[in-house]
Amino acid sequence: MTASKAASAREIERGFLIGIGRAVGGAVVFSLPVLMTMEMWQLGATMDRERLLVLVALLIPLLVGLSHFVGFEETTSWLDDLRDAFVAFAIGFATSAVTLGLFGLIEPMMSFDEILGAIVIETVPASIGAALAQGQFGQQDKEDRQASRDGGYWGELVFMTAGALFLSFSVAPTEEVDLIAAEMRPLHVIALAIVSIAALHVVVYSLQFSGQEAHEPEGAPGWSVFARYTLVGYSIALIVCFVMMWTFGRFDELGFTAMVRLLVVLGFPAAIGAAFARLIV
Amino acid sequence: MAKQSDDKTEGPPPRQVGRLEWVVAALGAALVAGVFGMLLHEALTYEDGPPVIVATVLDVHRTEGGHVVRFTAENRGHTTAAEVTVLGRLTEGDRTLEQAEITLDYIARKSSREAGLVFQRDPASAKLELKATSYRKP
């Protein structure tokens, strides 16, 4: 190896370390509200293991998708995305383990299974945060940044999923969601669903006009945006909520209508998260 | 090096991946596999059954606020218990001299929690009994 090659190799490693620092920052930002929520650690300890497994199994493809669309190189192969996803998972896992340890929430009195559960559940938001921050690995100029933000329609949906998850994940484990859902009358539920959709549409529509959605052909009719972004976005928000609440075991003792109510309540932050995905993400 | 600067004029240069990044990625892959393995193992070995909560006294301290009895409540069962109430009683024969109660948020399966009860009387002068009296499914 020549001296210059060695030097550039060192440069690459240095760039990666800086990227790791950034990813840890992203992980902390995304997971702190959840890391400091008691219901969340409790969930990690008590959740059905099969469902936790499902949650992790769904997390990996989401991380791969995020790495793909946030990644600043458009030509990356799926292997690269998979590598980035694993890096994000490792960083998310390490960040939540260290933070929980710092908080004194990992004690020798706890069983391994309880500790692992708590770390794994916190890894979900943490690794998403890491993946998003990781998209800015290495140096990049403005042009790269532009490219990374323009992931096309599918990229948009992946962002929406991440945004929905981001805002609703910290609310989902709390009891307040149940309480709100219980307080609501049918009319409230319908109104909240309409408001969620309207808010989502307003944000999506205004972002389109501010030129952030460069890939969208100029002057696409309003109904098309509504159908392809707003309705699909709201569906994504509800699906995210459904998967989350099911894995958390929150539907277990509920009837169908109570379930729908809960979904709509949680769907509100999820829809807002999906709408602002571009700004958050 | 020359090739890199050429690329720069055309578009973003292909990102170079260092060895360290692969190492971290491998670590991540191992973690994912490990987590999957552990969760799968737990899911497969899961047994349904009631939580088994055993409270054991650790020590008794005489303080200004009374006699503090520190104890651990261990859940030896396979399921987690929430809102576990532990009742401590000082008895003399059939007579209950004093009792104190505490509610623990939750005790995960095969885990334990430390807590304390405060008595005005010295527990050494009577019989101290600790037992879990109720729990809720989380």
From TrEMBL, chain A:
Stored Pfam families: DUF2391
Cross-referenced InterPro entries: CHP02587_IM, DUF2391
Transmembrane feature ranges: 20-40, 52-70, 85-106, 115-133, 153-174, 186-206, 226-248, 260-280
Organism, scientific name: Hansschlegelia zhihuaiae
Signal peptide coordinates: none
Keyword Iron-sulfur: no
NCBIfam families assigned to the protein according to its UniProt record, in alphabetical order: TIGR02587 family membrane protein
Keywords from the named record: Membrane, Transmembrane, Transmembrane helix
Name of the protein this chain belongs to: TIGR02587 family membrane protein
Automatic annotation (TrEMBL), chain B:
Residues that span the membrane, as ranges: 20-40
Swiss-Prot/TrEMBL keywords: Membrane, Transmembrane, Transmembrane helix
Key word Transmembrane helix present: yes
InterPro entries: CHP02588
Protein name: TIGR02588 family protein
